[in-house]
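Thread amino acids onto this structure.
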């Protein structure tokens, strides 16, 4: 299996170029469902140790079904598909440029949640125009065991997020363990309280905000991803969900820029335009760098060829 790895603002992406699972015919949504139902072991073997690690997001590159799209892609982690992934879309654009498949300029990618547009500024800098993002619930209160009450918003940015404005723990790299523990507990509390996204969807990302460290940034975040890892980047879909909340609260005007800093200090510049359905169309600009171009080997004699699963508890 040929893969190209990159990182976007520190968050890694592995694009499967050749040798991925055969998904058969159908729409991208149907093929994404088949990837999750029938090939999640392959996904796990691509992103987990010993070939990867729990923060790695996979991107299965497929031929586009539409003439106006440069590529189709299904994002995945070790557990499931991701509807959209901002950092991986930036990583994919930079990977396709590295391969000579796209030039600087505007391109469209098909994803299971819709068409996203990218503007490749140069070999490393990309703006992603994401799917329409919106806030579903404002100021939901949940009781979190051992921590007390938390108030947050439920918003969609291509994935479902619970966004908490004022983190009680400083958003520093030294606090990654306690921040992870807290956000896992918040996510469990949402589940036990029956707080979901639209149509009962699992809220699989939790985002905490606090003051930035850089004088040029507007905010700093910590983002828990579905598999339990934290996002090293400010999270493209999380930034989109944040923009929906900032717009609804009247804090940010259309076209006005916001600089979102991650827990490791990397940044995205983000802004929005009004969407057609009452939400916002986010633009997320960041940088990615290719880190390797490799072939993954799956030796039948290797007891860990399917990846090392995280142990429960
Ligand atoms: O950038 O949207 C994102 C993302 C989702 C999970 C990890 N990164």
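Threaded sequence (313 positions):
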């Amino acid at each position: 299996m040929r893969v190209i790895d990159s990182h976007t603002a520190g968050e890694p992406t592995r694009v499967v170029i050749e040798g991925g699972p055969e998904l058969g015919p159908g729409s991208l949504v149907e093929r994404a469902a088949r990837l999750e139902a029938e090939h999640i072991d392959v996904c796990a073997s691509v992103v987990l140790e010993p070939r990867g690690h729990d923060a790695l997001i996979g991107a299965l590159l497929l031929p586009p079904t539409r003439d106006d799209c440069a590529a189709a892609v299904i994002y995945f982690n070790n557990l499931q598909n991701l509807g959209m992934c901002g950092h991986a879309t930036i990583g994919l654009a930079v990977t396709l440029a590295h391969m000579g498949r796209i030039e600087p300029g505007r391109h469209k990618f098909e994803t299971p949640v819709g068409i996203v547009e990218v503007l490749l500024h140069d070999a490393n800098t990309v703006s992603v125009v994401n799917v329409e993002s919106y806030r579903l619930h404002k100021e939901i209160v949940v009781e979190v065991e051992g921590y007390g009450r938390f108030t947050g918003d439920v918003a969609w940015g291509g994935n479902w997020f619970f966004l908490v404005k004022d983190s009680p723990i400083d958003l520093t790299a030294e606090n990654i363990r306690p921040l992870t523990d807290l956000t896992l507990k918040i996510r469990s509390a949402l589940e036990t309280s029956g707080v979901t996204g639209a149509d009962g969807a699992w809220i699989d990302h939790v985002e905490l905000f606090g003051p930035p460290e850089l004088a040029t940034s507007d905010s700093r975040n910590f983002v828990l991803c579905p598999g339990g890892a934290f996002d090293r980047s400010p999270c493209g879909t999380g930034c989109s969900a944040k923009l929906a909340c900032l717009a609804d609260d009247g804090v940010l005007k259309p076209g006005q820029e916001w600089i979102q800093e991650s827990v490791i200090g990397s940044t995205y510049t983000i802004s929005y335009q009004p969407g057609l359905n009452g939400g916002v169309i986010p633009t997320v600009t960041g940088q990615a760098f290719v880190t390797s171009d490799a072939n993954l080997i799956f030796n039948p004699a290797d007891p860990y060829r399917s990846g090392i699963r995280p142990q429960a508890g």
